[in-house]
Amino acid sequence: MRKSLLILAWGVALIASNSGCIVVPLGDLFRGAPLGEYVLSEGAGFFSKEKIAILDLDGVITADESTSLLSSRENVVSELKARLDLARADPQVKAVVIRISSPGGEVTACDVLHHEVKKFKEATKVPVVACIVDQGTSGAYYVASAADVIVTHPTAMVGSIGVILQSFDLSELIKKIGVSVAPVKSSPQKDLNSLFRPMTSEERQILQKLVDDMYGRFVDVVAEARPQLTREEVLRLADGRVISGTEAVQLKLVDRVGYMSDALALAGEKGGVESPTIVRYTRAARSGANIYTRTALDEPASAEIRLSLSPDRALSPRLYYLWQPGI
Predict the structure, then answer these.
(1) Which domain holds residue 258?
(2) How far apart are the C-alpha atoms of 51 and 265, rounded to whole Å?
(3) What are 142-178's pLDDT values in tens digits?
(4) Which positions are annotated as active-site residues?
(5) What pTM was computed for the model?
(6) Where are the beta strands (DSSP E) in 80-169?
(7) How many domains does the chain have?
(8) Residue 172 resides in a domain
(9) 3-class DSSP state of 122
């Protein structure tokens, strides 16, 4: 069935390209299966039905849906919220482990997920353990701060507390190709952070104030989540630096070094479950899955050719809690 869909998609693309127009009404053609529970291991004994749920937080955190020619990916905020809702609706879930592999992302998207994790804890009284597997930087660390405990692999990248707003000046390039840009605007600041002209000092002050406000919020979130640190100590660490999981423990940004098995054991301890059933929520269960199998939110049908239909986020005028060198 999937092979037939791929052939159909390629046929549509070829016909469209020959006609000089690409209109591909993919809709839900390549969307994954409905979200469901997949049992990784069965518990033992009388309380074997009591569960620990693994929730994945992978990739750049955004509230946008990413669509390519051969795949479609639900936005990360929606995906984690859906998994939290499944855990909330199941009275057998006694603890949750959020497995994190993310450089962070959009400021608002990260803040929404932080809020949703806290709301889940308040509504269910279910303990939440964050486990940073290989990367939990910037906005991903922001989300992790909502957990009761943060565990990190010793080799993971952690930290990068800070905010970035990309600004591009293409005015010289525009001049070279003989194009002029003359916007009609209601006020001087209406085209703030325009790509087509240099930024004025007043505009930079306005944008810096915005960045500083979001930075202050990040620092407050960390200071609230880490009572071991004063706000002044958090500020000294909040210079954008990236550190190893081992150093993050030493600096009190996370609670302990460990692996997924350690995070699950800790979650069981906090949830009062000795031999839990381990589950994760996924749209595509795989044969031989285990606690290190990630939920693939974006599974391209072809590893060789991917035609993106979305604008580059680097050119998007958004604030980011993101560690991604080179953008």
Answers:
(1) 29-166+238-295+307-322
(2) 12
(3) 999 999 999 999 999 999 999 998 888 777 887 788 8
(4) 138, 190
(5) 0.80
(6) 93-102, 104-106, 128-137, 149-152, 157-159, 164-165
(7) 1
(8) no
(9) helix
